[in-house]
# Entry
Amino acid sequence: MKKAFTIVEVSILFVIFLIVAFLVAPLSLDDTMQAKNTSKWKGVQLEFGNIFYSINMQKEKEGFDFKTAFDDTISIELKGNAEPYRITYLNGASPSSTYRFDNYKLTIAKRIMAYKFLDEPEGDLQGYLMYDVNGSVGPNVWGRDVFGYNIYSDRFEPFCKQDSIAIQKQECGKGGTGLCCSNYYLIGGKFD
# Structure
């Protein structure tokens, strides 16, 4: 006598498969979106290397002013002003004043950039730059689609480049700020 599955058994298996699919799909979708954002962030590195090359070429000129040269050079990449929007840390908290920006700019690539200079430079550190690889489209979270640079007088450096890998990884976890992801993903760190 042949034994076959009953309609109830098939239905139960189908429901189990659906539950598993609904649990796994969002995780893989989030990973795919994060991989795309990380890839965009890695692509930005070349663009910004060229910007500093242009600034450094101007240093020989008489009356060179770093802020003016920076503004002039970066303006080539900008399309215009953008409306401010809310950006949060990875842990959901609001950024400290150091990592809040006012002058949002739309780039030619339809991304959002903002920067600010320190009132008094700290050694070579001149200021900070925020770059949202999705523009104002969500999630608008540091370490997911928002990344940052320290602006030095001779280079851009991703946030946390000088910190240990363990600290960078911790800051890229759910309880972290996400600021260190700017460097952590560039050096091959994995997202959770």
Notes: The helical segments are 7-58, 66-74, 165-171, 181-184.
